[in-house]
Structures are given as structure tokens and as C-alpha cells.
Specification:
Blueprint lengths: L6 H10 L4 H9 L8 E11 L5 E6 L7 E3 L10 H20 L13 E6 L11 E3 L2 E3 L40 H29 L4 H7 L1 E10 L5 E10 L14 H14 L2 E2 L3 H4 L3 E2 L5 E5 L14 H11 L27 H14 L23 E3 L7 H19 L7 E12 L3 H16 L3
Antiparallel strand pairs: 1-2, 1-3, 1-13, 4-8, 4-11, 5-6, 7-8, 7-12, 9-10
Helix pairs in contact: 1-11, 3-8, 4-6, 4-9
Length: about 450
């Protein structure tokens, strides 16, 4: 009995017996399992930085005359390998702002800081899973048995399992304020910006300072991510820290404490308001954050802060986890919708489709054009950053990537016997496509699986 290898496996076997296989394999393995690499053509020359002598010239001759470079996509549904690297970098960035390192002073571990979660308001009751002391409770128990104007019961006594497809779905879709939900998404980034401004004012007021006086003695820094809930709305997780006027390199004043932030954040959340566009078309919409606000000190913390503390490592890991997720975690799609006809075939649940349709409808009206709702329909209206930070919070993703590139360049110089010579590389590369051949895709998949099994 003969066994026939799949086409990709047969092609990989043939490639393994061909000249130059080792270099070809290295060019793929070094990408760490990237699913959709970018192809570049061109050449580079290494010069002696002192004399200008050309030491080595090389082109991309290891993959059909092309150099492969990772796609760098942050979303786990698009490229698990690159998103894993992005998640690791985000973890290091957030952690550095909590305990120091990466050119951030370790003194920040003693600065007042909190971990805050800001949620979206309700636009209508949805099915939810509630737990108390490890026991699942009824979704929305109601004793009166009342129904909404459309005849749908306004309560639900079921105890939903974790993978129940109804979670996040409105009890009555006709009662649910889809226009308000979509507009909240579109304004969420602006609400966060307004929250940051108001928080500075509130902290200054609590310290008995004017805004200009506050800027002379203290600074608020933050790092945040956006997470989609099952109902399709984002909420924000953020580390908020009080520094001295020069950021982490200067200690905060004595009045700056974690309890002050714990008290200030919910108060400011309750005051922030924005008025949406299109009041004459769909009625007035005053947008705000939800009433559910969680604020806790990040250890080491001050006793009496009134909040359950969270460890620096746990907070950094939590924020990094959501930095690589998008609207697909709420059941949406991860690609832009360019034509209304595409919505007919979208593999999404009814609630998500209604949000996408509302984005498309409002986005086609001139009054809502500045919001770009059709452009962000696949994101359910949210077009803001998923991961962002204030300028002085800690290091940057660019700095972390540059450090990694410098390390790899140093390794390459050592392998070429140039470690003791100052060099500079001059090259010219052009885009030439992306993706893998069948045998390369098979090898990349094995690299990905190996990385996953080792916890990479």
C-alpha cells in the first residue's frame, strides 16, 4: 500500500534535497511563524564606518531572490506569531511603567498608581452571565413578568453557560438603541481624551492647586487598551500614575497618593459628557461612560486606599492580552467592509450585523460624515487606538523594536567576523509581494506550533 504525500509536504521534501535549502529554511524560521510575510527585493552593502571600505554586499537570494520580513500585524486572528511579539512588547512597556526598567527608573514602583476599568453605558438590557461566590446566577430575574412595548419579556431567569451564543444579545432588538451604541463607539476615544483632561483638573482641585500650578509640580501618565465586550461595545483598561513634573524621572509631591486617584477617577467618570452629531436626525444623544467603574491600587500600595490591590505583573499581563484583540472577539469581522452587499454574507450573529448595518446607515448621512462610520463598520463604529499611552509613561514600542533590531544586527556582524569593526549598512529594498509558497507555509506552520508548545 502506497501513501501519497500532500502537495505541500512533497514540495518541502523536494526543497530539502535542493541546493541552498539551509539558507532558504533560515529565512523562514527567523520570522517566527509569521503567517503573511512581506517580500522585498534589492541589496545591501556593509561599509567600514571609519574608512568607508565596502566589506560585504549581499542581495536577497535565499527565497527566490527575495528577502522575507514579518508582517508585524498586532491582531491575533490575522497573525498569531506577530501578535505574540506585539503582546510581549506591550507587556514590557506597561511593566516598565510600573516597576522600572527599559530606561525607566525603578523609583516608579513607589509612585501612586491605579488600575482602572471604564465601561460603556447601557443601550438596552442584554443577556449576561453573572457569578457570585463561584455560582452562576440568573441572567436578569424579574418577579413582575412584565414585557417591553414589543411584547418581549424584560427579564431572563436562565443561568447561561460561558459559551451561550445569546450572551451579549439584546433581550429585545427593537428596544435596543443601536444608533446610540454606534455613536458611543465613534466617540469613545474622545470621551477618554476628555476624561484625561478632567482628571488632571480634578486631582489639582483636590490638592488645592490651579491647573497651571499642578503642571509645575506633578504629571499624570497612563497606558491603556480597549477591550470589546460581548455586546460589541469597548471599555478601557488603564494604568494611571502620578509623577513629578518631569515624568517618571521626578518624584511626585507628598500630597500625591493612591487613595486620591481611587477617589478621583470615579468622580470624573461620572461628570464627563459629550454631545453627539445628528440631533436633528436621530434625536439628541449625550454620551458618557457607564456607571460600572472599577479602580484599584497597584501594589505596592498605601493602606487605607479603599480598593483591592492588583500586582504589577498581573496588570501588565492583563493589558497586554487585550492589545492584540479587536472587534472579532465580540463576533465581528477582522476586515474592512467596502460594499453594502458584503453584509449579506457576513458570518456574524444578528446583534453584530445590526450594529454594522447601523454604522453603514449613519455613515451614509452627510451629518455623520466626520465620524467615518462606514470606514469603521467592521469595528462596530470604534476607530480609536486599541493600545496607547501618554508620552512620559515609559519606553515606546519603537524603542523596544529598535533594541531588538540592534541585537540581531550585532549577532549578524559577529557571525560575519565584523564584531570588532564599526560598520554601517546601506541598502535599497522594494516591495515585491507577500505570502508563502505551499512548502514555505508548511514550514512556517511547524515553527508556529513549536513556538506555541514552548509558550512563545
Amino acid at each position: 500500500m502506497t501513501t501519497t504525500l500532500p502537495e505541500s509536504a512533497a514540495a518541502l521534501v523536494a526543497r530539502a534535497s535542493a541546493p541552498g535549502f539551509a539558507a532558504w529554511r533560515r529565512n523562514i524560521v527567523r520570522l517566527g511563524g509569521c503567517t503573511n510575510p512581506i517580500h522585498l527585493v534589492g541589496e545591501a552593502t556593509i561599509f567600514d564606518a571609519t574608512t568607508g571600505e565596502a566589506l560585504l554586499s549581499h542581495g536577497a537570494d535565499t527565497y527566490g531572490g527575495r528577502l522575507l520580513t514579518a508582517c508585524g500585524n498586532r491582531r491575533a486572528t490575522v497573525c498569531p506569531a506577530c501578535s505574540g511579539l506585539y503582546r510581549a512588547d506591550t507587556y514590557q512597556l506597561v511593566r516598565a511603567g510600573l516597576v522600572g526598567g527599559k530606561n525607566v527608573t525603578e523609583a516608579v514602583s513607589g509612585y501612586p498608581r491605579v488600575f482602572a476599568t471604564l465601561t460603556a453605558p447601557s443601550f438596552g438590557p442584554v443577556h449576561t452571565r453573572r457569578e457570585h461566590d463561584g455560582r452562576v446566577r440568573a441572567c436578569r430575574p424579574r418577579r413582575d413578568g412584565k414585557s417591553c412595548p414589543h411584547g418581549v419579556p424584560i427579564g431572563c431567569r436562565e443561568r447561561h453557560v460561558a459559551d451561550d451564543p445569546r450572551l451579549g444579545e439584546p433581550l429585545c432588538p427593537r428596544c435596543y438603541d443601536y444608533a446610540g451604541a454606534v455613536l458611543w463607539q465613534a466617540y469613545a476615544g474622545r470621551l477618554w481624551h476628555r476624561f484625561g483632561l478632567e482628571l488632571r483638573r480634578d486631582v489639582a482641585r483636590r490638592a488645592g492647586l490651579s491647573r497651571s500650578e499642578f503642571g509645575e509640580v506633578a504629571r499624570l501618565s497612563y497606558a491603556k487598551v480597549a477591550e470589546y465586550q460581548r455586546r460589541g461595545l469597548v471599555h478601557f483598561h488603564a494604568v494611571i500614575r502620578l509623577d513629578g513634573p518631569d515624568g517618571p524621572d521626578s518624584a511626585p509631591p507628598g500630597w500625591a497618593t493612591a487613595p486620591l486617584l481611587v477617589d478621583s477617577v470615579p468622580a470624573v467618570v461620572g461628570r464627563v459628557r459629550l454631545t453627539a452629531l445628528g440631533a436633528d436626525i436621530i434625536g439628541p444623544r449625550v454620551l458618557r461612560f457607564g456607571t460600572q467603574v472599577d479602580v484599584r491600587s497597584v501594589t505596592p500600595y498605601e493602606r487605607g486606599s479603599g480598593a483591592r490591590p492588583a500586582s504589577a505583573a498581573a496588570v501588565a499581563g492583563y493589558i497586554a492580552k487585550y492589545a492584540t484583540k479587536g472587534a472579532e472577539s465580540a463576533g465581528a469581522v477582522d476586515g474592512r467592509i467596502r460594499d453594502a452587499r458584503e453584509m449579506v454574507m457576513l458570518p456574524v450573529r444578528a446583534h453584530v450585523l445590526r450594529m454594522i448595518s447601523t454604522c453603514w446607515w449613519l455613515g451614509g448621512l452627510p451629518d455623520f460624515a466626520p465620524l467615518g462610520l462606514r470606514r469603521w463598520a467592521h469595528m462596530l463604529g470604534y476607530g480609536g487606538h486599541f493600545s496607547s499611552k501618554s508620552r512620559r509613561y515609559s519606553t515606546t514600542l519603537t524603542a523596544l523594536r529598535q533594541a531588538r533590531a540592534d541585537h540581531r544586527a550585532e549577532q549578524q556582524r559577529a557571525s560575519l567576523g565584523l564584531a570588532d569593526r564599526p560598520t554601517v549598512t546601506v541598502g535599497e529594498w522594494r516591495y515585491a509581494g507577500r505570502g508563502y509558497s505551499p512548502e514555505a507555509a508548511l514550514l512556517a506552520a511547524s515553527v508556529r506550533e513549536d513556538g506555541a508548545s514552548h509558550g512563545a
